[in-house]
Amino acid sequence: MLELRPGCECCDRDLPPDTDQAMICSFECTFCLDCTTVRLGGLCPNCGGDLVRRPTRPVRFLGRSPASTQRVFKQLGCA
Known about the structure:
By secondary structure, the chain is largely without helices or strands. The N and C termini lie far apart (28 Å). The radius of gyration is 12 Å and the shape is globular. The chain has a single domain, classed as Herpes Virus-1. A 3-stranded antiparallel beta sheet has the order 2-1-3. It has helices spanning 33-39, 59-62, and strands at 22-24, 30-32, 52-53. The chain is built from 2 helices and 3 strands. Pfam families: DUF1272. InterPro entries: DUF1272. This is DUF1272 domain-containing protein.
């Protein structure tokens, strides 16, 4: 099951589980759509993999399968 991390690793923008603005790589590194397109060119700065739209989790499932609350943020920013 996807973690659904709560924020962008580059800019720390909130990315709730129902947003269509979250992008992930195969390791679930998470970035907002703006950072993905403007800063990162569609590639994960951690592994070099493609960043694709993260699926949303329907609200009715968040009670038993909540999104992660652990934020990953790069203090020095992204490439």
